[in-house]
Amino acid sequence: MYDYKHSTREPLFNYLLTILLSCALILLVALMGTYGGYVQPTAPAWMIAPTPTATPIPPPEYNLLEAKAFFATGRLLEAVSAYEDAIQKDPTNDTAMIEQSRLLVYTKDTGKAVVRGAQAVALNPNDPRNLAYYCRALDWEARYEEAFEVCFCAIEEYPDYAEGYAFLSEIYTDLGNVRSAKEYAQQAIDLDNNSLDAHFNMGYVLEVQGEYDQAAASYDRAIEIAPNIASSYIAAGLMYHTMGQYRQYRKQEPYISAIERFKAAIKLRPFDAEAYARLGWTYYFDGQYGRAIDALEQGLGVDPTYSKGWGYLATVYYTRQRYEDAAERYPKAIELAQNDFLRRARTIEIFTEVPTAHGLSSVPILRGDFEWIPGERGRKYQTELEVVPYLPSTESDIELNCAELIAQSIRTETVIVEPETPITFTELFSLTEGFLTLDLETGMLEGQLNNLPPAAEWPYEIKMTYWPGRTDSLGEISSDVKDSAILEVQFDEKLDPPVEYYYQLGLAYTYLRRCDEARPWLAKAVRQEPAAWNPAWHGFKSTLCPPTAGLDIPPTPIPTATPLPTATRRPG
Predict the structure, then answer these.
(1) Cβ atoms within 10 A of the Cβ of 482, count?
(2) Do residues 254 and 390 share a domain?
(3) pLDDT tens, residue by residue, 454-494
(4) Is the sign of the CA dihedral 538, 542, 548, 550 positive or negative?
(5) Which residues on adjacent β-strands are paired with residue 349?
(6) 52, 145, 245, 410: which has the highest count of C-beta atoms within 10 A?
(7) What are the CA-CA distances from residue 250 to residues 204, 234, 241, 291, 448 (Å)?
(8) How confident is the model over 175-213, as pLDDT tens digits?
């Protein structure tokens, strides 16, 4: 029988057991040390992933240089974005702010141009560039009284700075005082013959005077000075286009010149539908109908929300008697033109009433300026409400120069109060915050205000300001038990599109013998413009689409010599 007790395997077994127990003990100690932080195990080098190198954040000076490089090549949107990066990194950099304000006018974001110009002046009022370009932004927002104050201050403090006179000329041109406008534009040129803005605004006043050939020459001079701004090419192209329509200029050359300048504008600003629309419209007047349609369709491919592009394209089809194509496109042009109303929204304010020396006074205590939501341009605005700072009238320093007074008025609003009564109402709203979104497609303004103090005796009033200088009350709100308020406002107001959209759409249906579809559009046309010259009356003839009972139209007018409405260059 085999004797396990005296087996020769016993020493070997004991030896292996000892090794196993030792390894277990070592492993246990290592685990306890690691858990307790006493042992830091080191992985082999091949197992360690390399530590990524930290990417340094460029300083704001880099963004300023980047913006200048973009501007030099005509890439204005990229330049605006680079200036925005510089501003976010250094909110005290007035140079970045005023340069961005300048470019925002060229890119048609004039509401934000005013905001940035005001911030630049508030930071550094004693800079002629800040004053002048803030003045121009105010002018483009039709805030003429404020623009006058800033521009006159600029030429008072800095009488040798040409742009102050150039933008003062622009204000006078907008207000129809062409004599003063021309004088100030010439002063700007005399001070600096290489000033882009001086020659551009001389072109503007000459355009208003009907001196189209001289205006084109001034715009071309502006192009020569700064060949990277698309709006100068568009302004010059419009002059050559207009010259092509008048008998004294009626040659092929003006249209050729206009086409060249619109093409140059497209190269500089390929994602702006205006230059395509102007190019297509010039091709149309020059009889190049196929090219006109191609250019207009390209523009709508770039920006399908550009109402003028749809209107021009529909008109080309209508005049070429392609009535089906015209009838398909006019409704889109009308819809977009009607909805352009909300694009004019600029500022929203929350008002309350405070005691003053003259009784209760309604004052804004929260304010926000609308800006495009990134990636939603053409569709949505947003704003963040901030507390409006106030200054008692007794603390306002009237010994400052005009530029410093303007900066003071930007930084604070003055309110008249009893001398012994301190301003405390702004402190109540120091924690109030709110984001609002304005959807241009749905016409809804939505948002929430948090930490809104309960209204003591009166509800808060909401007011909206629109370009150019219109302010509407949107109603009243009050906070709930949680000191918050939900804001929901539906806008139903529409702008009137050009009357030709209505009557040409109505006549297109008339010629297609679709009278049921024609009559509503013809009726809208004569309600908007009941004068005898309106072609919509032709569609109501008994041989075409006579009015039906109950159709809301004014009485048929007696023919009179009613002048056609005149167009303006400034966008609405």
Answers:
(1) 9
(2) no
(3) 876 668 899 999 998 899 999 988 877 678 888 899 998 88
(4) positive
(5) 367, 463
(6) 410
(7) 22, 20, 10, 21, 59
(8) 999 999 999 999 999 999 999 999 999 999 999 999 999
The domain that holds 77 is classified in CATH as 1.25.40.10
**Are 407 and 432 spatial neighbours (Cβ–Cβ below 8 Å)?**
no
What total number of domains does the chain contain? 2
Quick check: 519 and 549 in contact, CB under 8 A? no
Contact of 182 with 204, CB cutoff 8 Å = no
Residue 351 φ then ψ, to 5°: -105, 150
Q: Domain check: are 143 and 260 in the same one?
A: yes
Name residues whose C-beta falls within 8 Å of residue 189's C-beta, 6 or more positions apart in sequence. Answer: 162, 195, 198, 199, 202
Instruction: List pLDDT tens digits, range 330-358.
Output: 999 999 999 888 889 999 999 988 777 77
What separation in angstroms does the CA of 333 have from each of 300, 305, 325, 512, 562?
11, 9, 13, 20, 26
Q: Work out whether the CA dihedral 383, 384, 390, 396 comes out positive or negative.
A: negative
Q: Is 37 left (phi over 0), alpha (psi -120 to 50) or beta?
A: left
* Exposure b/e, 130-164, CB count within 10 A at least 16 = b: bbbbbbbbbbbbebbebbbbbbbbbbebbeebbbb
Query: Taking all residues of the chain, what is their mean pLDDT, rounded to a whole number?
Result: 86
Task: Give me the domain span that covers residue 82.
Answer: 60-272
Residue percentage of the chain with pLDDT more than 90: 60
pTM over 0.90: no
Residue 206 and residue 349 in one domain: no
Please give the full DSSP string across 120-189, using - where no structure is assigned: HHHH--S-HHHHHHHHHHHHHTT-HHHHHHHHHHHHHH-TT-HHHHHHHHHHHHHTT-HHHHHHHHHHHH
H helical segments located in 37-109: 60-72, 76-89, 94-106
Apex 361 CA angle, 360 and 362, nearest 5: 130
Query: Hunting for tokens 């804004």 — which residue is that?
Result: 364
Q: What is the pLDDT of residues 146-167, one digit of tens each?
A: 999 999 999 999 999 999 999 9
Whether residue 263 is found in the same domain as residue 365: no
